[in-house]
Write a structure and sequence with these properties.
This is Carbohydrate ABC transporter substrate-binding protein, CUT1 family. InterPro entries: Bact_solute-bd_prot1, SBP. It comes from Gracilibacillus ureilyticus. The structure is a single chain. By secondary structure, the chain is of the alpha/beta class. The protein folds into 2 domains: 154 residues, Periplasmic binding protein-like II (D-Maltodextrin-Binding Protein, domain 2, 3-Layer(aba) Sandwich); 209 residues, 3-Layer(aba) Sandwich (D-Maltodextrin-Binding Protein, domain 2), CATH 3.40.190.10. It is built from 18 helices and 12 strands. The strands form 3 sheets. The protein has a 5-stranded mixed sheet with strand order 2-1-3-12-6. Strands 7, 8, 9, 10 and 11 form a 5-stranded mixed sheet that branches. The chain has a two-stranded antiparallel sheet with strand order 4-5. Helix 2 links the parallel strand 1 and strand 2. Helix 2 packs antiparallel against helix 14, helix 7 packs across helix 8 and helix 17 packs antiparallel against helix 18. The N and C termini lie far apart (101 Å).
Length: 445
């Protein structure tokens, strides 16, 4: 009898041990799944949209990075939307009005305050604090440009500086000394005339720039800015500053130093059609350092970057600018996933090898050092130019106020374009601009 009970006890113990081991095995499998080591992902499917502007070269690079991200994150699908600069902000305005902005938006410094002020951009600070958006390898200098009132509305995806693209081989062919840092506006006019005279019919010294970016640079050299601190009026009182600035372009057009408008007005922001790409000018005055890679690629020959002219006795006009930002729209239902992609875009060395600093110098330290060491010739020129521009730069001005996009269009359509075509005098343009710009900015009071 005692032997029978002993046998039954042993069998019960045996069954208990088998059940215990099975339970442990089940728990281990659950743990593996929760730690992400199982081959089957438990992540829910996420669909994002991303919008950006740029050249075909930028489109190709960005699409490849999107594919890389989706390969590493198979639960995420990112639908790309891209266009050139022309029409980009009209598309954004239409989508904003329909409350249908993409999850991830390429943003520009001059539009940042306007879109944030209309509550269209999400504050990314909580994602930085949680570590979802990793900016631990980024210096404050590169972060601060995307902040308004201590809220982070945009992440800088490439620092750059205002520049001129130059073809030094054309300078050499024309027997004209190349431009060196510190040259003046008068020296630019003189050498541009020499280039036009010596390079033959249909080739000109410069593609002129009477646009607002160049005017901002000119104002900074006079220690002024376009807008007042509160954004309710123009920041300069003497209209002679705008008159003198526009007269530079008028002089170069009248002397033949600058290409006439029919040579460059059709190009817009399409680098493939820039006159310097087609060897119609030796200088393009309205570029940023991050554009060199695309311009060189389109031209198929080496080009260089040069600072804008100095003002004798004036202040430094240059500043280091966030080339573009990535922002997350408040319309997005997947803001955290969008922030994860921006973190990848910022920190992934593999992704940035594809991007190749086309948008500007990367902001993450390890990425920046890696790319600089392995950069193409055009990339090295860009890095070197940003370093040079830092020597001729001072602090960046605040983001443009609300209404600045309307003022940009006003300046382009009623100041720059009529000046190019000789339809208006600098004095008339300056007076007209002040009257209409003041009316727009008064709405901010």
């Amino acid at each position: 009898m005692r032997q029978k009970w002993s046998q039954m006890g042993f069998m019960c113990l045996f069954i208990f041990m088998i059940g215990f081991m099975a339970a442990c095995s089940s728990d281990n499998q659950s743990a593996e799944t929760s730690n992400g080591t199982d081959t089957e992902s438990t992540d829910e499917k996420v669909e994002l949209r991303m919008l950006w502007w740029g050249s075909q070269d930028r489109h190709d690079r960005t699409l490849e990075v999107i594919d890389l991200y989706m390969e590493e994150n198979p639960h995420v699908t990112i639908s790309p939307e891209f266009t050139g600069w022309d029409g980009y902000w009209e598309k954004m305005a239409t989508q904003a009005a329909g409350e249908n902005l993409p999850d991830i938006i390429q943003m520009d410094y001059k539009y940042l305050a306007e879109y944030a002020g209309k509550d269209l951009l999400a504050d990314l600070t909580p994602f930085v604090e949680s570590g979802v958006l990793d900016l631990s390898d980024v210096e404050d200098t590169y972060i601060d440009g995307g902040k308004l009132n201590d809220q982070l509305f945009a992440v800088n995806i490439g620092a750059n500086a205002f520049a001129m693209a130059v073809d030094n081989a054309m300078f050499e062919e024309a027997g004209v000394p190349k431009l060196e840092p510190g040259y003046t506006w008068d020296e630019l006019k003189e050498r541009a005339k020499q280039l036009s005279d010596n390079l033959g019919e249909g080739v000109y010294g410069v593609q002129p720039n009477a646009g607002i970016m160049a005017f901002k640079h000119y104002l900074r050299q006079h220690n002024k800015w376009v807008y007042s601190e509160d954004g309710t009026e123009l920041g300069y009182e003497d209209d002679q500053l705008l008159v003198d600035f526009l007269q530079i372009t008028v002089d170069m057009l009248e002397s033949g130093a600058a290409a006439p408008p029919d040579v460059f007005m059709t190009a817009g922001a399409n680098v493939e059609q820039f006159p310097i790409v087609n060897e119609e000018t030796a200088v393009a005055m309205d570029v940023h350092s991050n554009q060199l890679i695309a311009i060189e690629s389109a031209a198929g020959r080496p080009l260089d970057l040069m600072l804008h002219p100095s003002l004798e006795g004036g202040e430094l006009g240059h500043y280091i600018k966030p080339g573009q930002f990535l922002s997350v729209s408040t319309h997005s239902k997947e803001q955290e996933e969008a922030a994860k992609f921006i973190s990848f875009f910022t920190n992934s060395i593999e992704a940035n090898e594809i991007l190749n600093a086309e948008r500007g110098v990367p902001i993450a330290g390890k990425v920046r050092e890696h790319l600089k060491e392995n950069a193409s010739d055009a990339g090295k020129k860009m890095f070197e130019y940003v370093e040079l521009a830092q020597e001729y730069s001072r602090e960046i001005d605040p983001p443009d106020p609300q209404g600045s996009t309307e003022i940009e269009s006003l300046f382009e359509n009623e100041v720059a374009d009529p000046i190019y075509y000789g339809e208006i005098t600098p004095e008339e343009a300056a007076e007209n601009f002040r009257a209409k710009a003041s009316e727009i900015l008064a709405k901010n009071k």
